[in-house]
């Protein structure tokens, strides 16, 4: 149970919200503990303050503070993310990665400038442009910040555009599982080793088509699974999970709930299924990538305990 010295720290609280069929129903909340009295605790959540009577608290604990990631941490996570989204056409420019996937997604069709390109920076940018030109594609570079700040400055000077900022957010699987217990009141989130035709149709609708390279991006990972959530016989939710980075990282992506099934907690339900799968396989942490302007998704992931590890900008040659 929490104590006064936990005030001001991030906590997770599981509370009893009702009873069904003689079984207690629980809900979890994550936020900063702002008050603790003899009768109530109050936490500041992403949606505002929440006061919970202590009689309704099933359990509560402090979430360990996370340290600021180092440059090595950012490189390791970026490489794990690259493993989770493997472009079929890849090359190297020194340590930099060059990736092409028939134009399907920015991550699959951009250079990743981590490490030494083995030549002066201007020459490296020229080489990136030449590599994509031979493939008939616009040159793009994903610039992790602040790690690749000098690359961003060089691209500014050359007039490269920038797409919206992307947040790379992480959490520990233990913490994620604490706020996402299994829910018997929702349809089963089935994990399959390959995507169904319906699953691929949802991905195609979201991403604007599905070229051959997309199938490689989706499936060419040693440990990958695809969530299929059916409601009344129809596919209502999809998600994809990977385990990369030497087995440490669960990568969560392509979380989608059809419009008629939203606001029921299905996205979090699918993420919980992926977290249990990855934890069972020995992974310890989870990451995802989300555009900063996607407020609903950013809010959801914040409620689940994800915090921003680092950010990146996708830069596009003029």
UniProtKB/TrEMBL annotation:
GO terms for molecular function: acyltransferase activity. InterPro entries: Acyl_CoA_acyltransferase, GNAT_dom, Rv0428c-like_C. It comes from the Bacteria. PROSITE patterns: GNAT. SUPFAM superfamilies: Acyl-CoA N-acyltransferases (Nat). Keywords: Acyltransferase, Transferase. Its EC number is 2.3.1.-. Residues 189-318 form the N-acetyltransferase domain. This is GNAT family N-acetyltransferase. It comes from Polymorphospora lycopeni.
């Amino acid at each position: 149970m929490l104590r006064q010295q936990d005030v001001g720290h991030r906590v997770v609280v599981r509370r009893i919200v009702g009873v069904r069929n003689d079984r207690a129903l629980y809900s979890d909340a994550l936020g900063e503990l702002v008050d603790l009295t003899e009768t109530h605790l109050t936490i500041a959540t992403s949606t505002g303050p929440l006061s919970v009577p202590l009689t309704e608290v099933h359990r509560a604990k402090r979430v360990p503070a996370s340290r600021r990631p180092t440059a090595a941490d950012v490189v390791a996570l970026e490489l794990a993310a690259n493993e989770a989204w493997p472009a079929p056409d890849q090359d190297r420019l020194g340590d930099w990665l060059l990736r092409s996937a028939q134009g399907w997604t920015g991550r699959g069709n951009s250079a990743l400038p981590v490490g030494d390109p083995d030549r002066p920076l201007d020459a490296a940018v020229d080489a990136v442009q030449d590599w994509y030109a031979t493939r008939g594609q616009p040159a793009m570079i994903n610039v992790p910040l602040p790690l690749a700040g000098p690359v961003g400055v060089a691209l500014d000077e050359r007039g490269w555009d920038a797409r919206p900022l992307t947040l790379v957010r992480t959490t520990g699987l233990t913490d994620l599982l604490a706020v996402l217990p299994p829910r018997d009141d929702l349809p089963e989130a089935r994990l399959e080793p390959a995507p169904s035709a319906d699953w691929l149709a949802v991905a195609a609708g979201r991403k604007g088509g599905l070229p051959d390279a997309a199938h490689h991006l989706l499936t060419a990972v040693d440990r990958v699974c695809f969530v299929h959530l059916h409601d009344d016989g129809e596919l209502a939710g999809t998600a994809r999970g990977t385990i990369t980075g030497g087995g440490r990282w669960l990568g969560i992506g392509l979380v989608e709930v059809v419009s008629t099934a939203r606001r029921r907690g299905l996205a979090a339900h699918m993420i919980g299924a992926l977290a249990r799968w990855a934890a069972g396989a020995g992974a310890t942490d989870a990451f995802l990538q989300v555009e900063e302007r996607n407020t609903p998704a950013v809010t959801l992931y914040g409620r689940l305990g994800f915090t921003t590890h680092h950010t990146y900008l996708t830069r596009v040659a003029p």
